[in-house]
Amino acid sequence: xxxxxxxxxxxxxxxxxxxxxxxxxxxxxxxxxxxxxxxxxxxxxxxxxxxxxxxxxxxxxxxxxxxxxxxxxxxxxxxxxxxxxxxxxxxxxxxxxxxxxxxxxxxxxxxxxxxxxxxxxxxxxxxxxxxxxxxxxxxxxxxxxxxxxxxxxxxxxxxxxxxxxxxxxxxxxxxxxxxxxxxxxxxxxxxxxxxxxxxxxxxxxxxxxxxxxxxxxxxxxxxxxxxxxxxxxxxxxxxxxxxxxxxxxxxxxxxxxxxxxxxxxxxxxxxxxxxxxxxxxxxxxxxxxxxxxxxxxxxxxxxxxxxxxxxxxxxxxxxxxxxxxxxxxxxxxxxxxxxxxxxxxxxxxxxxxxxxxxxxxxxxxxxxxxxxxxxxxxxxxxxxxxxxxxxxxxxxxxxxxxxxxxxxxxxxxxxxxxxxxxxxxxxxxxxxxxxxxxxxxxxxxxxxxxxxxxxxxxxxxxxxxxxxxxxxxxxxxxxxxxxxxxx
Amino acid sequence: xxxxxxxxxxxxxxxxxxxxxxxxxxxxxxxxxxxxxxxxxxxxxxxxxxxxxxxxxxxxxxxxxxxxxxxxxxxxxxxxxxxxxxxxxxxxxxxxxxxxxxxxxxxxxxxxxxxxxxxxxxxxxxxxxxxxxxxxxxxxxxxxxxxxxxxxxxxxxxxxxxxxxxxxxxxxxxxxxxxxxxxxxxxxxxxxxxxxxxxxxxxxxxxxxxxxxxxxxxxxxxxxxxxxxxxxxxxxxxxxxxxxxxxxxxxxxxxxxxxxxxxxxxxxxxxxxxxxxxxxxxxxxxxxxxxxxxxxxxxxxxxxxxxxxxxxxxxxxxxxxxxxxxxxxxxxxxxxxxxxxxxxxxxxxxxxxxxxxxxxxxxxxxxxxxxxxxxxxxxxxxxxxxxxxxxxxxxxxxxxxxxxx
Lengths: 487, 405
Hints:
By secondary structure, chain A is mostly helical. In chain A, 65% of the residues lie in helices and 0% in strands. The interface between A and B is large, with 40 and 47 residues.
């Protein structure tokens, strides 16, 4: 199965008679390692990386300055009012947790579904999951007001016999998000061990060798190692799969258990999960499309990969649309005047602008992905990703604010506006997120080398003259092998 | 892509042959007799066929769910360009095409609306009259019938599209037929999502017209899909026990059946739990009333049985790789799920008819056997003596060679 260079060969042709070619550019194992490891092994990154890093670190500085200001002053610095006691902090929390869903879906669920194309994007997506969950975790923590007792979120035995309220979904969040973070981190790290060993073996400085060597956990690539690795990977995938559903289901409980019209509806758990996957894929795409360009990864993250992601975005976006429609239908069908009021108020009240931004970005614009020409065009898809990111933030804004701002007592109705601190904190969280992404692409292999190799034609024992020989030591560059054999 | 030990299609019996007429004679005969008995039993109750209507509705909703599960399964295989399932795809294609007979079997419900659905009966308590008036634009016999005609037109069109294209490919081997099915599959899923959710609400949720749940359509889908997975397993194993599909459907395919049953048992529980927990937690009377009826007078015990019988037991039973690859255990759990999910549908519908006690009647059995018998008979009739495997599908070779990594 010969493949030409990526700009010539169209691997989205979708021919039923043969499986799609996942890795382009006539690669063999060595060229894969050289390409991916080479990005990390450059003596210094390009100047653009430094500029980007300076920007994102400055934004992270803004984030921490705002948090400090908040702690020193109190949550009054935010735009919260009565009746809107939950504002941007919870919106941002749900937004970031949602983004953290693509990684584990790609690495766990698509693994169980034998979607081989996931190997090109899973490492990157998993890293983004972890960074997004870090960003998410900040918001509820700083929302507690008295941050110096934030450890009371956890059920820690204490002499006052004080416990958090186990019936509160906010406590369930602590467990759900905590478990998700832990398992995602383990999954990401476990999957990276063979690649870390490769980086260790290729290291040209003692520091790098020690650093990568420490995290490679003594990986030698023996059959026994591979056997255990694959078993662990499968088990972690099985464990992570229900977590993909549980985290955002629990997040949806934050709203849905309340007796507040617009929040209390039973579709929320699966609808939130679909929305989370939707937003997560859009954010992965937002980062991957430029990354494959800048780092020359077009042969690894091909148009076929992006097209598949866009199909998932179309599917989950349509599920979200169906949920919006069902909610609206039942708001009428249920015959509860409060419920009906909230939905009409959403669409035509003071926050109608936010509602229609949400509907346009989440339901209407992704429908463009029905057209193959549009879903395989990198410029078009990137613009759609941006719309989806905006739309999904607005979804959480609409849910949170429109249900609160006109509550059961018309005398206490109000209009919520964020303060400058709200805005800068949220902008700062992007700084933190992209700082972590930039560090990741600088120091860790952003494509899972070991996994990608398994889906290449030459990994097949029957692939003929280009059959793979030997084990993973074939990855070690010739000059290093020579040096070792001389010493 | 190891093609060295590809099992040979030619060595395997892939048609029903003489078995077909035997199935549709016996199953069809038994089914018709059981249906006639149901009507007689229903008339004997002298309640205007109300009891018959409910018993019939339970089994009808149940078998409709199976065929709808088959339809969405076929569309999903095409939309994902799946290869593992090619060798068994004809079976769900047939089960989906069976929606044709389910359209006919819908008539006893559509003609008996006023005895089954309070909103159609004209006898509504005074305090609920205003509520019903509010819902009347949706809940009236004419619009209900129009909706069901629309649902069935959509479903039968989709099911026949996939089934007939697939049959034509057996003869011509044209690759473009696969492309055509794939091109329709995305749209098919959209149509399915809309129609299945509303059909589920129409059929079972509107039994208590005051009650509502946005999750209900998903609940009905989850029930139907997991039952479909179990029925598919049983049909495959039954065919294999007669020497059909013997070498070509391997332990690898059965392993995937096991995974599907396991995953969707869990999915059903997730949906059922989410709906219950959110209503229980908020404790709003207009929402909890549905669960109140289903937690009193013995129905609560049925609900508890659902937790252990419908979720926990198959969940634990199918968790191991060994169980998913053992024909015997797989058959046991498939039968288990088939029964358990019927209890689930029974628990959804029957408390409306008999809120004061769990009244398992002979009618429930005869309706199940009646609709099930006819469903099975037409399945065999539709299968005919044609191949049970899409012999010319371009991905068939991958399907025959497929291995769980």
